[in-house]
Design brief:
The longest helix has about 35 residues. By secondary structure, the chain is α/β, with parallel strands linked by helices. β11, α11 and β12 form a beta-alpha-beta unit. α5 packs parallel to α6. The chain folds into two domains: about 220 residues, Rossmann fold, CATH 3.40.50.2000; about 170 residues, 3-Layer(aba) Sandwich (Rossmann fold), CATH 3.40.50.2000. The chain contains 14 helices and 13 strands. The C terminus is likely disordered. A seven-stranded parallel β-sheet has the order 3-2-1-4-5-6-7, with helices on both faces.
C-alpha cells in the first residue's frame, strides 16, 4: 500500500515559538494516527524547521530566502523602478514558482494549513502569506490533493485584497476548522460560507508539556512570569508612540512587582521580534531609579520552545501579551493575566473562564492591571482546577479532530471517489 504523504503549511522556521509548537503538536498527532505517513513542511524557514522538527521542509517562496530579503532591505528605489522590477522580474519569477510548487506537491495526498493566525492580517501583507496560501491551495487542488485548514485563526482583515485572497483560498478546502468562534464568525461576516465548518481549540493544547522536565523556582518569593512583546500597534508600519506607551506601562507594572519583592522572569514569544522590549524595560527601570535586588529579575536568554516552557513552569502566575505565552501558561496550570492585542486572546481567556483577567493593550490601565493581579493571586488555588478541567476538554476535542482528519478522511481517500 502506498504511504500517505502529508505536507504541513505555515509560518514555521521563523523563530516564533508559538508557531513552532503548533507544528510540533500536529506532527506528534499525525504520527500517532498515521505512523507510516511521510510528513513534510512548506514554510519560510525550511532549514530551521527541518532541523527542529526532523521532517523534510521546502521553501514556501523565494521571497522568504535570505538572499532576497537582504537585497530588498538594501534597495532604495523610486516607484517607477519598483514597478518595472515587478513587471520584468517578479511576474516571470512567479511562473517559475508555480512550476516549482507543482513539482514539489506531486504525490501529496493532504495539504494541511496548520493552525496559527494565518488568516488574519496582523503583520501580514496581501502578497505575503495570504497570496502563498492561495497559490499552494490551488496547486493542491489541481493535483487532486485534499486541502485542510485545521484550527486556523482568522480576522480581522483590513486590506480588501487580503480578504479576497483568503476567501478564495478557503473555498478550495475539503475541511475547515477554526480555533475560536470569532474566527469562524468573522469569515462569515466578510462573505465566506462557514455553515459546515468546525470550531476546535488551538492545536498547541493537544501536546501537553511534561512538568517533570521543568526546574522549580528557587527562593521564598513568588515568581511571576512577565511575557513581553515588541508591540507597535495593529498596522503594518512601526508606530513608535504605541511602542513607547506599551513599554511605559509594562515597566510600571514590573516596578510595582519588584517593590513588593516578587521575583520576575522576563519572557518573550518570538526570538526575532521581542529582543528590543527586553532591553528597553531594564533600561527604563534604571532610568526611573527603581531599587531592587539583582536576583529579583531573571532575564535568561531563550532559544527554543522547550526553554520558554521551562521558564514558564518555574513561575506561579503569568502576565503576558503574546498569544502562545498565555496558552503555555494555561497548559502548565498557571493563573494567567492577559494583555490582549487581538481578539484571539480575548476569546482564549473567555473560553477558559478568565475573561475578567484580560485587558486590551491599546487601553492598558496599569492600576487596573495591579488590581487584576491581586485578585488572580488571591483566587489562584480556586482557578487552577477549573483551568485543568477546561484543558482536558480541549484535549478530548482535539483528539476527536485528529481522528477525523487523519483516520476518517484518510480512510475515505482509499475508496474510489469523484472528489479531489
Amino acid at each position: 500500500m502506498k504511504r500517505k504523504r502529508i505536507r504541513f503549511f505555515g509560518n514555521f522556521g521563523t523563530q516564533n515559538l508559538g508557531n513552532e509548537y503548533t507544528l510540533q503538536a500536529i506532527i506528534h498527532n499525525a504520527r500517532k494516527y498515521l505512523p507510516d505517513a511521510e510528513l513534510s513542511c512548506i514554510c519560510p524557514g525550511p532549514e530551521e524547521a527541518a532541523a527542529q522538527h526532523h521532517i523534510p521542509a521546502v521553501l514556501m517562496s523565494y521571497r522568504y530566502s535570505q538572499e532576497f530579503k537582504s537585497k530588498s532591505e538594501s534597495r532604495r528605489n523610486t516607484a517607477i523602478v519598483r514597478l518595472l522590477r515587478r513587471v520584468l522580474i517578479r511576474f516571470p519569477l512567479e511562473f517559475v514558482e508555480w512550476a516549482r510548487a507543482f513539482k514539489s506537491m506531486r504525490g501529496t495526498s493532504m495539504l494541511v494549513m496548520t493552525g496559527t493566525g494565518m488568516l488574519g492580517d496582523f503583520g501580514i501583507a496581501p502578497f505575503d502569506l495570504h497570496y502563498q496560501i492561495l497559490k499552494w491551495s490551488i496547486v493542491a487542488k489541481l493535483i487532486r490533493c485534499k486541502v485542510l485548514f485545521v484550527s486556523i485563526g482568522a480576522g480581522p482583515i483590513a486590506h480588501p485584497l487580503s480578504r479576497w485572497l483568503i476567501k478564495r483560498a478557503i473555498s478550495f478546502a475539503d475541511y475547515r476548522s477554526y480555533r475560536d468562534t470569532f474566527s469562524r464568525d468573522y469569515l462569515a461576516s466578510i462573505g465566506s460560507d462557514t455553515i459546515k465548518d468546525f470550531v476546535y481549540p488551538d492545536l498547541a493544547f493537544s501536546l501537553p508539556p511534561e512538568p517533570a522536565a521543568f526546574p522549580k523556582a528557587g527562593g521564598n518569593s513568588r515568581a511571576i512570569g512577565l511575557g513581553l512583546m515588541d508591540y507597535y500597534g495593529q498596522r503594518m508600519e512601526q508606530d513608535e508612540a504605541t511602542y513607547r506607551s506599551y513599554l511605559d506601562k509594562v515597566t510600571s507594572f514590573l516596578a510595582w512587582l519588584l517593590e513588593r519583592k516578587y521575583t520576575v522572569r522576563l519572557l518573550i514569544g518570538d526570538l526575532s521580534y521581542d529582543q528590543r522590549i527586553r532591553r528597553d524595560v531594564l533600561t527604563m527601570l534604571q532610568a526611573r531609579g527603581v531599587k531592587y535586588e539583582r536576583q529579583q529579575i531573571i532575564d535568561e536568554p531563550l532559544s527554543s520552545v522547550r526553554e520558554l516552557i521551562a521558564a514558564l513552569a518555574a513561575t506561579d502566575i503569568v502576565v503576558a501579551t503574546r498569544f502562545h505565552n498565555i496558552v503555555f501558561g494555561l497548559m502548565l496550570g498557571k493563573p494567567v493575566l492577559a494583555i490582549s492585542y487581538h481578539e484571539k486572546i480575548k476569546s482564549l481567556m473567555s473560553g477558559v473562564g478568565l475573561a475578567e483577567y484580560c485587558q486590551s493593550v491599546d487601553q492598558l490601565d496599569t492600576s487596573m492591571l495591579v488590581q487584576q493581579f491581586i485578585k488572580v493571586e488571591q483566587s489562584a488555588e480556586l482557578l487552577k482546577p477549573a483551568i485543568e478541567q477546561k484543558l482536558e476538554e480541549y484535549r478530548r476535542a482535539l483528539d476527536q479532530q485528529y481522528r477525523q482528519i487523519f483516520s476518517d478522511r484518510c480512510a475515505e481517500s482509499k475508496q474510489p471517489s469523484g472528489n479531489g
